[in-house]
Write a structure and sequence with these properties.
It is found in: Nucleus. This protein is α/β, with parallel strands linked by helices. It has helices at residues 44-54, 72-75, 91-100, 125-128, 149-152, 170-177, 181-191, 241-257, 282-287, 289-292, 317-323, 329-336, 402-405, 478-483, 487-500, 504-513, 518-528, and strands at residues 56-57, 62-64, 108-110, 134-136, 163-165, 197-198, 201-202, 205-206, 209-210, 213-214, 226-231, 266-277, 341-344, 354-360, 368-380, 384-396, 410-421, 431-434, 451-452. Helix 15 (487-500) crosses helix 16 (504-513).
Length: 538
């Protein structure tokens, strides 16, 4: 087997001479904690302490916990090795806590050649060993990648971990048999985002892009500007336009000015729900609404989330779905009063709206009017823009009803309100459907040639040292990078650089790795910022 270069754990595989970082540990049998060495009256904790201490190389800060089940300490029957299913559930935790009391604390831990199938026994490894930089789980029985979340489910759990080895586990063999080694690496890096060595091979992942090749962001290629088909006008069944327009004008006016007065607009058995979608639409991202509109950054979803009945985003779907379906006019008005105030541009003749309506039969025992509205509003007091979709099922108001007395010809039997990030009403305008390219940019000039990142040579290094990312050999000048990109991408990079402190090169790579979605890129950046790799910053 060919060894990877620069691994702090590579010496555990085969001796390669004095230049191997920890080669001195190869073939050396760790000292055994015998019964004679432990006080005869020592309790179990003390016996474990002696065992852990006997396995520790203080000079190299290396804790050898290999071949546990074959060690006489566990074979004598008093203790069960923590990698075995029959072991008490706290054996591994106790050993890790004792390891945390070693001075200096371990930086490298090898749990190779054991029988671990699950890592529950090691769930506290990074809590007790916060300086852990190198971890070997080679030649175990791990086959489910989900079990790795016990030691790395959050990026802040393993901020210093730079190297892991899973060679010899069914896990990697499964991915390899499917020819999915790239996916294997991707899945591992989701759990251990700060790794620079995986299975003895160098790898650097930063903010969603591969730093093993430091290339500038690519300019997007030009494509078609319009679709073959055109956008048609709204569908409005004959005879219902006046009723629809009158209802919508009155409803949105009162929604903005006096929501409590809308109680008469809902039928006694009306139902109402809200659904929010916090994702940024591609149209909005390409049009740079989040950056160019002055108040978008003041918006948040906190007032909307407790009401949202988006079944794809809810936990405890059954209970929450029932609680978030409002089933009387009074409940509906209370829900509407919990969300921020709004301002719909109805005085402008509804130019930012599109409404469609038609009569629906055979759904209820009477004919109903189905009305859908797509549009936008200003959320107050933030003054930011949101897009919305509303679906109303309307029925004629009874002649002697309070609704009719207050001027409502129709009442709402059912309504769904869908709120999303602003994406402009122009998408619904009749006429050619524009393809969302880079705002009609001409093809960008070729990007500068990528600079290569050399893999570190296998030179002698301190025995226990976390592998550092390879230095960037050369980096194109910021002006050269920006000049090769369309205007909107240059704007995204400049803004992202200001917010994150990343340099131009890596701001662009981060955005490109997240499909030029600034919100996704920023979330990815904050997730991985714990890795603290200084070369990516200005």
């Amino acid at each position: 087997m060919r060894l990877g270069k620069g691994s702090a754990l590579s010496g555990r595989i085969a001796p390669t001479g004095p230049s191997t970082p920890i080669s001195k540990r190869v073939g050396v049998r760790p000292k055994i904690a015998s019964a004679a060495e432990a006080p005869k009256d020592a309790n179990n904790i003390q016996l474990l302490r002696v065992f852990v201490t006997s396995r520790y190389d203080k000079e190299r800060r290396y804790l050898n916990l290999e071949n546990l089940q074959d060690d006489p300490f566990f074979k004598n029957g008093k203790f069960t090795s923590p990698d075995l299913p029959t072991a008490p559930k706290d054996t591994g935790t106790v050993m890790l806590k004792l390891a945390s009391q070693l001075d200096p604390p371990p930086e490298t831990v090898s749990l190779a050649n054991n029988k671990f199938r699950t890592l529950k026994q090691l769930a506290y490894i990074t809590r007790y060993l916060p300086d852990l930089a190198n971890l070997s789980l080679q030649n175990n029985d791990i086959e489910d990648i989900k079990t790795l979340s016990f030691i790395g489910s959050r990026s802040d759990q393993v901020p210093k971990l730079r190297e892991v080895i899973f060679l010899g586990n069914p896990l990697k063999e499964i991915f390899s048999a499917r020819n999915e080694l790239e996916r294997y690496q991707s899945e591992i890096l989701k759990i251990f985002p700060c790794l620079t060595m995986l299975d003895l091979q160098p790898v650097v992942k930063v903010a969603g892009f591969d730093a093993s090749v430091a290339k500038p962001p690519r300019a997007t290629e030009p494509g078609p500007t319009v679709f073959d088909a055109q956008m048609g006008g709204p569908i409005m069944q004959a005879g219902v336009q006046e009723t629809t327009n009158t209802f919508l004008f009155k409803y949105f006016t009162m929604f903005d000015q006096n929501r409590a007065a809308l109680v008469d607009a809902y039928a006694p058995n009306a139902t109402f729900s809200v659904s929010i979608n916090t994702a940024v639409p591609a149209r909005a991202r390409i049009s740079r609404f989040f950056i160019e509109l002055p108040h978008q950054k003041q918006l948040n979803w906190e007032a909307w989330k407790p009401l949202s009945r988006n079944l794809t985003r809810m936990r405890n779907t059954g209970d929450n779905a029932a609680h978030r379906l409002f089933t009387s006019p009074e409940e509906i008005i209370k829900a509407l009063q919990r969300v921020p105030q709004t301002k719909h541009d109805i005085a402008n003749g509804g130019s930012t709206f599109i409404a469609e309506s038609w009569i629906v039969s055979s759904v209820l025992s009477f004919d109903t009017l189905l009305v859908t509205v797509h549009g936008q509003f200003t959320e107050l007091p933030a003054q930011g823009q949101r897009s919305f979709d509303r679906t109303f099922i309307l029925a004629p108001a009874a002649p002697d009803s309070k609704a009719r007395q207050n001027g409502w010809e129709v009442v709402i039997v059912s309504e769904q309100l869908h709120i999303r990030n602003y994406s402009s009403h122009e998408a619904w305008a009749p006429g050619p459907i524009t393809v969302q390219t880079d705002e009609g940019e001409k093809p960008a000039a070729p990007a500068p040639a990528p600079a290569s990142v050399p893999v570190p040579a296998a030179a002698a290094a301190p025995p226990i040292q976390a592998v550092q990312p390879a230095p960037i050999a050369s980096e194109p000048a910021p002006d050269a990078i920006l000049s090769a990109l369309p205007d909107y991408q240059r704007g995204l990079i400049t803004e992202f650089q200001r917010v994150t402190g990343l340099n131009v090169m890596w701001s662009g790579r981060c955005l490109e790795g997240n499909q030029w979605n600034p919100e996704a890129a920023l979330a990815n950046f904050h997730e991985l910022r714990v890795c603290s790799l200084p070369l990516f910053f200005s």
